[in-house]
From TrEMBL:
<keyword id="KW-0521">NADP</keyword>
<dbReference type="GO" id="GO:0004316">
    <property type="term" value="F:3-oxoacyl-[acyl-carrier-protein] reductase (NADPH) activity"/>
</dbReference>
<dbReference type="InterPro" id="IPR020904">
    <property type="entry name" value="Sc_DH/Rdtase_CS"/>
</dbReference>
<keyword id="KW-0560">Oxidoreductase</keyword>
<dbReference type="InterPro" id="IPR036291">
    <property type="entry name" value="NAD(P)-bd_dom_sf"/>
</dbReference>
<comment type="similarity">
    <text>Belongs to the short-chain dehydrogenases/reductases (SDR) family.</text>
</comment>
<dbReference type="InterPro" id="IPR050259">
    <property type="entry name" value="SDR"/>
</dbReference>
<dbReference type="InterPro" id="IPR002347">
    <property type="entry name" value="SDR_fam"/>
</dbReference>
<dbReference type="GO" id="GO:0032787">
    <property type="term" value="P:monocarboxylic acid metabolic process"/>
</dbReference>
<dbReference type="Pfam" id="PF00106">
    <property type="entry name" value="adh_short"/>
</dbReference>
<protein>
    <recommendedName>
        <fullName>3-oxoacyl-[acyl-carrier-protein] reductase</fullName>
        <ecNumber>1.1.1.100</ecNumber>
    </recommendedName>
</protein>
Amino acid sequence: MSTLTTDLSSHLALITGATGGIGRATCLSLAHLGCSIAVHYNSAADTAASLVSQLQSLGVKAKSFQADLSAYNGARALHAAVVREMGDPTILFNNAGMTMGKSGVKDVSEISVEEFEQTWRGNCGTAFLLTQLCIPSMVGQNWGRVIFCSSVAGFTGGVVGPHYASSKSAMHGLIHWLAGAYGKKGITVNGVAPALIEETGLLPASNDDLSARIPIGRLGKPEEIAETVLWMVKTGYVHNKVVAVDGGWFIQ
């Protein structure tokens, strides 16, 4: 008997930030295994609608849900709407994130404490709340997958700024605590930490200067992050890990 979960037709995945490159690729990867998908978006309504149509064409249930995940009430409303319209998620990919429109910060004075706190709330705080809301039903089913999209910045400080790096590293401690608390209850908890992925909000297109920083000489693709998430969903022995997917940039 295989220990891999390859038939997800009885499962529902809630993917936050689903209209970005990584979110979209992950939705499609899970759908190919029959998973129902709750597509979260904030402002990209047309992109979400197009993605839902594409998922439905693969023969899975899919619906889009708008929520501003920079606010706790947005997370509460999102969870309530998903449960009401599709049921309780057994897979949660906390993928939504924000930089406050700031990158390449060189001096700590460039980030106000208000921006720092808002970034933490949008990148880690609402992900914690969604996890808190989703876990009880996972415990009841003795099966669940909680995955966080961190960043290599959580290990190294990265190239965006202190607000972003600290919000991502905060995820790592959260992952380790959750993993210790829920591993014996059928729930695995992990994180994926990408670096320099093109076709995303941070890097819409290829960039030769950034590619030169990567040991393998190119930027990553959203599908490569989705494949890592899929591995974490399928493989119940992967637990309490934050896996850097970065072309060899960071020696973990």
